[in-house]
Amino acid sequence: MSTGCHSVSMTAMPTSKRLRFGIPSLLLLTALAAVVLRLTHTSGVVELTFHDLQLDPTSPANDRTQTIPAAIERLDERQVRLRGYIYPSSVFRAKGIKRFILCRDNNEPPSATCDSDFVIVQMVGPAETDFTTRPVAVSGTFAILPNPPVVSRRKLFYEIAATKVERLD
User: Fold this and answer.
1) What mean pLDDT is reported for the chain?
2) Which CATH number is 70's domain given?
């Protein structure tokens, strides 16, 4: 028998041993399981989103150790995949691009608003890509920059040494 609005209990057990899970608790556990499944891809590649990369807005802007989330700090030098757009003003040619800035994918062309909405992408080895206005997925080694460069008045904290750029149509 349930005494709460959204609780589940096992009545066959004595009162002291009853298990009660509220709907919000079950939703939270489900959401956490989804994040774990999303972050750890079967191939060992971590599926990142720009939302994961968001900086802590309450920490001082000059304190890198408190600005970058601890979960992201643990991804330094790991293989990742990140979806976004090639920022148009970061490239100066249409083909054979070796370096560009990837910006947040809001299901619309580039419109990033904060520093963590940008990631530097450096193609490694013979890998290169072509410019597209369509979303792309970048795969490679994730790095947190010790001395973030300022590009177009934005501090860029992250870089991906990319081995692959997939066009997502």
Assistant:
1) 75
2) 2.40.50.870
